[in-house]
Amino acid sequence: MADFMEILRERGSGALDKKMGIMITEASPTRLVATMPVEGNTQPLGLLHGGANVVLAESLGSIGTQLHAGPDRRIVGVDINATHHKSATQGIVTAVATPISLGKTMCCYEIVITNEAGERTCTARITCLILAQR
């Protein structure tokens, strides 16, 4: 069985994930978990920026799709949406991504983001396309 965390360590994280402080703690095509600090990712009123939630969700859905597709395939996100349920003002948020569908050419993930109290702050959904090999 593949060691998906080792694959991610070898590839490294993207520049935006580094800037946002996103840390992946669990990774496989069927479940991904990551944390992100609120501090440094806020909007002017001091709340976690909604766009930061979307970045976190897109990172997990894209990585999950890449792990599903395999190292020789390229993937791109084609749709993402997020519903913000509750604001976060401090600490870290945790995102858990689980697949809605894992296909040959398309994958869809639901990402649930919670605060340190375990309260759901955001629900996102991303669809990624697995490109044809060239």
Q: What's the quick description here?
A:
By secondary structure, the chain is an alpha+beta fold. The chain has helices at residues 4-11, 15-20, 50-69; strands at residues 23-28, 31-37, 75-84, 92-102, 106-114, 120-130. It is globular.
Give an account of the 3D structure:
The chain is α+β, with helices and mostly antiparallel strands and 134 residues long. The protein has a single domain, classed as Thiol Ester Dehydrase, Chain A (Roll). It has three helices and six strands. The chain has helices at 4-11, 15-20, 50-69, and strands spanning 23-28, 31-37, 75-84, 92-102, 106-114, 120-130. A six-stranded antiparallel beta sheet has the order 1-2-4-5-6-3. Strand 4 (92-102) and strand 5 form a beta hairpin. The chain is globular, with a radius of gyration of 14 Å. The two termini are 27 Å apart.
Per CATH, the class reads Alpha Beta
**CATH level-two architecture:** Roll
What is the first-to-last residue Cα distance?
27 Å
Helical residue percent?
Answer: 25-40%
Radius of gyration: 14 Å
In percent, how much strand structure appears in the residues? 35-45%
Order of helices and strands: HHEEHEEEE
Mean pLDDT: 93
Question: What would the CATH topology be?
Answer: Thiol Ester Dehydrase, Chain A
